[in-house]
Amino acid sequence: MSAVLEDRAAFLEWFGERRAANTYRVTPVPLDSLDGWHFDPGTGNLGHRSGGFFTVEGIEASLGEDVGTWTQPIIIQDEIGILGILVKLFDGKPYFLMQAKMEPGNVNTLQLSPTVQATRSNYTRVHRGSAVPYLEYFVDPRQGRRVFDSLQSEQGSWFLAKRNRNMIVEIPEEAEVPAHDSFRWVSQDLLKDLLRIDNVVNMDSRTVLSGLPFLHGEQSATGDEPHTKAEILSWFTEARSNHVLERRRIPLNQVKGWSRGPERIEHERGTFFTVLGVEVEASSREVARWSQPLLAPVDRGVVAFLARRTSPEADWQVLVHAQSEAGTSDVVEMSPTVNCVPANYTHLPPQQRPPFLDHVLTAPPSRIHFDTVLSEEGGRFHHAENRYVLVEVPDDFGAAAQLPDDYIWMTRRQLTGFVRYGNHVNVVARSLLACLMD
């Protein structure tokens, strides 16, 4: 089969071959029986015997009087991993070296990953496994042109200030870079098509692909921007100044409202998420067998932009929310209009539901321009899915004066411009931007 893929049928054939060529098995096991992992007798924190990878600890957080203070388990992973994609021109068109990669938390086991998707513990081989292919293109000294290189945040509800290095590296057209069995050069048009299929392109690919517009240089203004860049930066600075986010790490055994049994950690109401254990076998990974904990959300989330445009040819204007989460690095980040798990709010009165959630859930099909279920990071999360949606609002949706202070309209291109900078655009917003690429 060719190392270059340009259409869905060829991709599905290759992807099916990769699934059949390897052995994958993920078996739930009690947390107390995870090989190499243990609960600290003093703090109750869950960690690996090597001191690497990550820990599950506790956090106490407050978002001010309106939300109050709460405690929860949270993943602590201070090391910075690499998420990198190689891009190369074939006959003048860009192709991306993508990987069919197994992750233990994926709903369908195998998804399309970046060229390199590795934590520092993995690429420094703490696990004593095999080397990471193509890593040499993303660490010094490296070949190629760095198109996009930025430290980007991950899920603030589940990670404390977690960041990964997102990179796109363009290599010369004449360079010979063979595609190993689990890798293929994928055209940009095919990637765009695959993003519309449920649970095919993984989160790590999407966050890197949000930097794709920089392959062609910085984007200029088009004249249909509802606010200038200076106005947006002022709004964002004011949001960071006005929002309250206070937090402190606490021992896992001091987290209130959560129970820890031998099997799992879970909330007393059965909401939010659980922490469970798995044993993994994967013939295609750097290590063929291992154990680990995974965080499992209790239900599917909704990630949506409300959107409008001044003409059918104009860029989408999206309604952006300055959102705080327990693990957000710098108080707030630019988030989609809606970013929540609706099931977590069923016990609350209607006025405490996330703003604009009902606009998304009740939108008629004629106003939905993108609607795909996509997985979150399968290396840490078990069957974590979000419904990613772009909903066009009617003309009478309302004036800017009626918006809450922490919402603002900006064009898709303007929001993409802020992806260049770390801790500005959150991971689910970057994912949805990748889905809306030209």
UniProtKB/TrEMBL annotation:
Q: Which GO terms describe its molecular function?
A: lyase activity
**dTDP-4-dehydro-6-deoxy-alpha-D-glucopyranose 2,3-dehydratase domain spans which residues?**
9-212, 230-436
Q: What is the lineage of its organism?
A: Bacteria, Bacillati, Actinomycetota, Actinomycetes, Kitasatosporales
* Top-level taxonomic group: Bacteria
Q: Which Pfam families match?
A: Hexose_dehydrat
Q: What protein is this chain from?
A: NDP-hexose 2,3-dehydratase
Organism this protein belongs to: Streptomyces davaonensis (strain DSM 101723 / JCM 4913 / KCC S-0913 / 768)
